């Protein structure tokens, strides 16, 4: 396809297709597909952005931004005076057969590190985001920009608390999205929430703490980390208004605990938000006892009935460690997160030194945030999850009428009460035989004192929209078969 050749009908070559995704994303996807399929072969020229925009009936800005993104990733190339084209002289990495050693000169065969893990077809397990929409291209662009930006000397330097660019980007993002009160120096870059908890728990133990108040039920992994660090977990019941702060204060008096691990934005697994009155009460308690609140910002980005509520940290920065990550908003594989911990708090609770993520990953995170790509991804994800949740609730009402579904309109899971006499463990095991992954509520209990409520925790983050009705129908069949 040379410049002197015929003008191609780009409106048919690039099918943008309908859908809620932004035009820029749809144009990127169409160009990638055209290259992958061979309709745009190596060396092929693309039209000037103005021509492409006029042909497709889109704005020139969309065309220019798309070209810029794909060039930044190395997917396309652009030279002054030569326009934009598909790289020539080699098979494109996404083209058919590009990884076949018979067609790629002197390149080794691609050997997987291990067999691919296969999740169940009907994935109703909680805690997994939509893996089909991981922002691979935008992240690749952020990595490429980070490589271009990093000076040679910084490839040997790893800051003890994290790269300044990443800490600044995270502080700015949390300030505008979660109303967090933090300067860049208050941010520590981590490998994720679990990694942050290891450092904070060790710091609490070093500062003389011996017990940690925890929500019951809650995610067991963070409780286990606290116990390993030498902190005794003290369970506190949770209800529809979040953790019971009065019960928490009573437990603190009995045990001497002055630290608590809480999820105010969206409690896991019950799906409650901490009420305003309890938010004020827990902050007042932390100030009175000079305590420490570890705020796990779980699912904070995903609220569907209103704007996400502000982080508790903004009410008492001197007493709150805010922990967050990309694990639920994007995917666990990124291995990136943060802990917001002002200097005065770090002096009282010395954060344990741990290996930080690579400098390249940290600067890529900074590029990803400052370019607006994280917030674009979250806006799109919120729209998908809002629609998916509505579809799931409608299917549950249709297939299992009368069973209560609880949890606020947020996050990626809901709780389904089971009929009297039905054992949740039996449902989980029978569902697995029907290719359905689902969790039982009792599996998250922190103590035997918590009422043994027979209910399922149903996730919809990684469930294909097309499979929701069938998944719920199959689950209903399993429940009815055990009645």
TrEMBL record:
Q: CDD domains, alphabetically?
A: AAT_like (cd00609), WHTH_GntR (cd07377)
Provide the HTH gntR-type domain boundaries: 21-89
| Transferase in keyword set | yes
Q: Does the keyword Transmembrane helix apply?
A: no
Q: Which UniProt keywords apply?
A: Aminotransferase, DNA-binding, Pyridoxal phosphate, Transcription, Transcription regulation, Transferase
In its UniProt record, a GO molecular function of this protein is: DNA-binding transcription factor activity
Per the similarity annotation, which family is this? Answer: In the C-terminal section; belongs to the class-I pyridoxal-phosphate-dependent aminotransferase family.
PANTHER family reported for this sequence = HTH-TYPE TRANSCRIPTIONAL REGULATORY PROTEIN GABR (PTHR46577:SF1)
Protein name as it appears in the record: GntR family transcriptional regulator/MocR family aminotransferase
What organism does this protein naturally occur in? Agromyces hippuratus
């Amino acid at each position: 396809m040379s410049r002197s050749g015929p003008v191609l009908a780009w409106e048919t070559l690039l099918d943008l297709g309908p859908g809620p995704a932004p035009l820029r994303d749809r144009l990127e996807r169409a160009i990638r597909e055209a290259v992958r399929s061979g309709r745009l072969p190596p060396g092929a020229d693309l039209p000037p952005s103005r021509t492409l925009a006029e042909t497709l009936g889109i704005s020139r800005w969309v065309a220019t931004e798309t070209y810029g993104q794909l060039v930044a990733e190395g997917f396309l190339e652009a030279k002054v005076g030569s326009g934009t084209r598909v790289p020539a002289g080699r098979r494109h990495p996404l083209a058919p057969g590009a990884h076949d050693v018979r067609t790629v000169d002197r390149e080794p065969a691609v050997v997987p590190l291990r067999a691919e893990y296969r999740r169940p077809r009907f994935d109703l397990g909680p805690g997994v985001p939509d893996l089909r929409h991981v922002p691979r291209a935008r992240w690749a662009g952020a990595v490429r920009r980070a490589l271009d930006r990093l000076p040679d000397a910084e490839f040997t330097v790893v800051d003890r608390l994290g790269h300044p660019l990443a800490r600044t980007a995270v502080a700015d993002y949390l300030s505008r999205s979660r109303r967090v009160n933090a300067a860049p120096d208050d941010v520590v870059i981590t490998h994720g929430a679990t990694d942050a908890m290891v450092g904070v728990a060790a710091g609490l133990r070093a500062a003389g703490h011996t017990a940690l108040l925890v929500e019951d039920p809650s995610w067991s992994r963070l409780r286990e980390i606290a116990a390993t660090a030498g902190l005794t977990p003290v369970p506190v019941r949770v209800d529809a208004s979040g953790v019971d702060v009065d019960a928490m204060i009573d437990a603190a008096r009995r045990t001497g605990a002055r630290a608590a691990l809480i999820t105010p934005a969206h409690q896991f697994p019950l799906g409650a938000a901490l009420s305003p009155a309890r938010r004020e009460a827990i902050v007042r308690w932390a100030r009175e006892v000079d305590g420490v609140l570890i705020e796990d910002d779980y699912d904070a980005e995903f609220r569907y009935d209103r704007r996400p509520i502000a982080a508790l940290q903004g009410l008492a920065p001197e007493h709150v460690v805010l922990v967050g990550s990309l694990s639920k908003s994007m995917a666990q594989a990124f291995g990136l997160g943060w802990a917001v911990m002002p200097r005065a708090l770090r002096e009282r609770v010395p954060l344990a030194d741990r290996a930080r993520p690579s400098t390249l990953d940290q600067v890529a995170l900074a590029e990803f945030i400052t370019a607006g790509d994280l917030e674009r991804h979250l806006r799109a994800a919120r729209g998908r999850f809002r629609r998916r949740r509505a579809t799931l609730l409608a299917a549950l009402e249709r297939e299992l009428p009368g069973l209560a579904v609880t949890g606020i309109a947020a996050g990626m899971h809901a709780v389904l009460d089971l009929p009297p006499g039905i054992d949740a463990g039996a449902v989980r095991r029978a569902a697995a035989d029907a290719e359905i992954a689902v969790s039982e509520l009792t599996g998250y209990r922190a103590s035997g004192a918590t009422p043994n409520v027979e209910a399922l925790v149903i996730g919809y983050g990684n469930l294909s929209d097309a499979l929701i009705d069938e998944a719920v129908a199959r689950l209903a069949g399993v429940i009815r078969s055990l009645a």
